[in-house]
Amino acid sequence: MTPELLARYEARARIIKALAHPTRLFIVDELAHSGPRCVCELTEMVGADMSTVSKHLAVLKSAGLLQDSKRGSQVYYQLRVGCITNFFACVESVLQANADEQQRMLAHIESPRVAARS
Amino acid sequence: MTPELLARYEARARIIKALAHPTRLFIVDELAHSGPRCVCELTEMVGADMSTVSKHLAVLKSAGLLQDSKRGSQVYYQLRVGCITNFFACVESVLQANADEQQRMLAHIESPRVAARS
DNA sequence: CGGCTGTTTGGTTAATATCCCAATTGTCGA
DNA sequence: TCGACAATTGGGATATTAACCAAACAGCCG
Known about the structure:
2 copies of one chain form a homodimer. Chain A is mainly alpha-helical. The first copy, chain A, has 6 helices and 3 strands, in the order ααβααββαα.
C-alpha cells in the first residue's frame, strides 16, 4: 500500500470514526430530521454532561460533518452534508441482514432438516 | 433518550466502528472491487503482520460486513453487503467539501476583499 | 505419523477515547 | 458592572484499540 493510498484511507477513516459513537449518531440523526439545534437542546436530549456533548459536537465539526453558528449566547449546529441518510440506510441494511442471519441460525438449530427449504 | 433508542444507536455504532480504520477500509474496498480474497493475499497487500490482518477481518466479520469460507487450508473473505459503495461515496463527498472549504479559506487569507466574488 | 503452510488466539505494551468535574470564556439583561 | 446562562477547555480516571511477537490450531502432502 503506497503512502498516498494510505493517506487516502486514513482521511476516510477519520470521517467514519467521527460517526462511530452512539451519541454522535444520535446527534447527526436528530440534526438530519429536525434541523439546527443548540448545544443545550442536544444536551437535554442526550442526557449527558454538556461538556461531553460539546466535545462530541467538536469531533463532528472537525470531521467536516457539522457547521456551527452563533445566535446570541447560543451555538447552533447543523449538518453540512446531505448524504448522511444514505449512509444510515446502508448501516440499517447490514443490521437487517444480521438479524435475518440470526433468525436463520435459530431456525436451523430448532429444526435442522426442514430449515434448508423453508 | 430511551434505552431502546440507545440500543439502536449502539448497534449502528458497532457497525460503523468496524469500518473506522484505514486498514479495514482498504480491505473492504479491495473486496468490493476484486471479489473474495484469502488472508494471505490481503496480508501481502496491507503489508502488516498476518495476525493483525486476521484480527481486522474478524472485526469486520463480527460486524456482519464480511463472510468467510474455507477453501482447503485457506480462508477466503468476501463482502456480505452491496451498499458499501454508497457509503464510501458519501465519505468522499465530505472529503471533497472539506477540501473546497480549505481552498476558500486560503483564498480568503490571501486576498480577503476579492475572495467573495472570485 | 511428522512436517508445512495458512490462520487464529493469547499476551504485552502504547496510544486513543470517553466520561464527569472544575474552571474559564463569552454574551445578555438587570 | 455584576450576575446568570451557554459553551468550551483542561484535568484525571478508566476503558478500548491496535500493533507485534510467540504459541496454538487446522488441513494437506510426503
